[in-house]
From TrEMBL:
Keywords: Methyltransferase, Transferase. One of its GO terms (biological process) is methylation. GO terms for molecular function: S-adenosylmethionine-dependent methyltransferase activity. The lineage of its organism: Bacteria, Bacillati, Bacillota, Bacilli, Bacillales. This is Class I SAM-dependent methyltransferase. InterPro entries: Methyltransf_11 (IPR013216), SAM-dependent_MTases_sf (IPR029063).
Length: 250
């Protein structure tokens, strides 16, 4: 791993991993977004070989095991996250790799029926290489599903319920935060437009099947909420999608 950003993010993820045990995992696609039970994007995974990109604490892989997937594979940048995943998945046969999604870590090629990534893909420092690698892991006809913050969401700020745009959606690049989850854990997060995700999928040879701009899940529809300026809130999610979810076929 040669990239300074990857090395820095890896160290920081090791430090903040404990905040993410079981957070952002299937059947959830993201904060205040519909769940898989409502969207049914995965079809039937029984007997399928699945690969989780940025598998974190392993809770999405456990969901796949409960749905009787045949093989459980995962890759993550952080050893600490993978230690948590081994705990979550103890007694289950797994294949867990520590490495960056944008690098070839030796995963088998043309092998998987399903590759997915829940709230991790946006961390990649090289989206085109990541999508090319993911395409290579899939069998022809296999599919890839990922969720991430809706790319405009990071620009939506709220002041006493008045929502406004901060910064420029037009400018891609990356943002470095010196602290993450209240810890001394510098993280650099790339910033991309929705069209960049879609165009890079197409360039990697995928056919887009479904694009979801999330809405509040049905179980929260009738819930009363107060005005909130929090980064994620029901108040904001009723007005703008918190999460994008894309399903693409090889
Ligand atoms: C919010 S967590 C994902 C949660 C996880 N998908 C789940 O289902 O429980 C984001 C994960 O992405 C991982 N990550 C960040 N950058 C990465 C990279 N370049 N390659 C692989 N994993 C990365 C982090 O270590 C972290 O575990």
């Amino acid at each position: 791993m040669t990239s300074k950003i990857l090395l820095q993010n890896k160290q920081s993820w090791n430090r903040v991993a404990h905040h993410f045990n079981g957070v952002d995992a299937l059947p959830h696609y993201g904060p205040f977004a519909q769940k898989e039970d409502e969207l049914n994007l995965f079809e039937d995974v029984k007997g399928k070989k699945v690969l989780d990109i940025g598998c974190g604490s392993g809770h999405s892989l456990r969901y796949m095991s409960n749905k009787e997937a045949a093989e459980l594979w995962g890759v993550d940048l952080s050893e600490t996250q993978l230690d948590a995943a081994r705990q979550t998945l103890k007694n289950m046969k797994t294949h867990l790799y520590c490495g960056a999604m944008e690098e070839d870590v030796g995963l088998p090629v043309s092998y998987f029926d399903v590759v997915y990534s829940i709230y991790a893909i946006g961390w990649t420092t090289n989206l085109s290489e990541t999508f090319k690698l993911i395409s290579s892991y899939l069998k022809p006809g296999g599919y890839f599903i990922f969720s991430w913050d809706h790319p405009l969401y990071v620009h939506l700020k709220s002041n006493q319920g008045q929502i406004y745009l901060e910064g420029s959606y037009q400018d891609e690049g990356s943002v470095t935060y010196q602290r993450f989850k209240g810890e001394d854990a510098p993280m650099t997060i790339p910033k991309r437009k929705l069209s960049t995700y879609i165009n890079e999928l197409i360039k990697a040879g995928f056919t887009i099947d479904t694009v979801v701009e999330s809405d509040v899940p049905s179980d929260l529809e009738s819930m009363e909420e107060e005005i909130s300026d929090k980064y994620y809130s029901l108040y904001k999610a009723r007005k703008f999608p918190s999460t994008m979810i894309i399903k693409a076929k090889k």
